[in-house]
Amino acid sequence: MRAVWLVGLLVAALVSPARAEDGIVLESYTGARPDEANRILAPMLAELATKNFTGGVDSVGLRFETRVSRAAGSVAGLPADFVDQVDKGHKAYFGGRFEDAIKQLGPLVDAARANSGAFATQPALRDKMTKATIALALAYNRIGDASAARAAFGELVRTGDTQVPKGTYGPEANALFEQVKKELTAGPKGRLLVKLANEDAEVFINERLERTGTTVKELIPGDYRIVVQRKGAQSRSHRVSIRPGSDLTIVVDLPFDAVVNTAGWVGFAFPSAAEREQSEAAYAQQFATRLGAAGVIVVGFDEVRGRTAIVGSLISPVNGRELRRASLALDPPPSDDRLRALARFLGGDQATPDIDVEIGATAAGIIVGGRVDGDAPAPRARWGGWKWITATAAVAGLGVGAYLLKIDGTCPDGSDASNCPNLYNVTAPAWGTLGAGAVLTGITVYLFATGNPKAPARSAYVVPTDGGAVAGYATRF
């Protein structure tokens, strides 16, 4: 039974497909997003959701902000009187009004962290943020909230602020800070590598300027904010979590960050039609790759043959190539059925006559039945170690089976005396193990004969999934 179970396990491992993550839907515009976008896109997004393509702020936007980056400045921005409010909260602490200090300084510190970009352009504000954080930590400590106090001081340590002056805040405050600092710096650090598309850009970590160009820095474990700035242009705020003894690499591409939007809607706002045409597909692929999405569809408004239309594209998450593209003129307004038909085509279905297909093919041919027509179906790559595993198991199965047959009907001492009180009776296990060994031998012969099949140099695909399809393009090099 064990041998048969082993055969089943090996066969299942050889043929079981990997489960892909869902695809995502992004929006794309030249300039501002039209006011009617929500109303027009709603039927398409609903239809695409049935095909495992999700969009919107609550799903894709939140994932991107959590895993990758968010705007370097909040919608509200840093308060115009930030400096005055910090001073007011500081005075409240020294006046013994600790609750008032927390109410005043807590929102200010939160606003500062949500607007990292403001500190890159106005470095003098950083001292005020440090002042606010120290007073906030000490106010928490005075009301007995040691956890909140230590968390605030931990932020100071990770930011690189290494002193709480005794002369200003007293020896007790200084001792608490030094204790937190000692605890955080005692363990192993992690290493952060910030790669830049522009090597003349400045890198800020937790609002502190580190250096110009690609940056490598050992950091105390915890959460960090990275902003890159070049000639007045700023990246988004990249949020990372450093773990003890780990290496983490992020890539900051200023042009990409400049057009990404995750507030209110998710996608790209390009400054010009030329830049949109040049970069839309590549940026969609980059966005999908950073989320680990299995596919990406881009929808938005554009000019098609002199008329405003809603345009959708299916983009390969492998190389940013457009696999499908179709549009619907917005004058007269298309019905919900036509919008859903456009969504179904982008999701992998056949085109219907009521949509304008611009791209439904690849360089190799039309996408048909999950492969490119004219290309041989791409065999799935197989790990080369399986043939050695099955060969070893086959030899073991045949050897054990032969041994069991040899001892069947004999005494434990090896004799075949008829009066032996305890003869071996292993006929069934013997033949079962031999059978399993024979099956494994056949599998081994097949694996050695077929080698490790490789995919063709290029192939586009549309793979059906539960409730939909995922499309892509693969290349071998």
Task: Write structural notes for this entry.
With 477 residues, the chain is α+β, with helices and mostly antiparallel strands. It has 4 domains: 25-70 and 262-372, Rossmann fold (3-Layer(aba) Sandwich), CATH 3.40.50; 82-186; 190-253, Immunoglobulin-like, CATH 2.60.40.1120; 382-450. Helix content is 44%, strand content 24%. The protein contains 15 helices and 22 strands. The chain has helices at 2-15, 37-49, 57-67, 82-94, 98-114, 116-121, 125-142, 146-159, 166-169, 171-186, 254-259, 273-291, 336-346, 386-407, 427-450, and strands at residues 23-30, 53-54, 69-70, 190-196, 202-205, 208-212, 215-219, 222-230, 233-234, 237-242, 247-252, 260-261, 267-270, 296-304, 307-315, 322-329, 356-359, 361-362, 365-368, 371-372, 458-465, 468-475. The strands form 5 sheets. Strands 1, 2, 12, 13, 14, 15, 16 and 17 form an 8-stranded mixed beta sheet that branches. Strands 3, 5, 6, 8, 9 and 10 form a 6-stranded antiparallel beta sheet that branches. Helix 5 (98-114) crosses helix 7 and helix 7 (125-142) runs antiparallel to helix 8 (146-159). The protein is flat and about 95 Å long. The two termini are 43 Å apart.
Separation of the first and last Cα atoms: 43 Å
Q: Mean pLDDT, rounded to whole units?
A: 83
Structural class: alpha+beta
The 3D shape can be described as flat
- Enter the CATH topology name of the largest domain: Rossmann fold
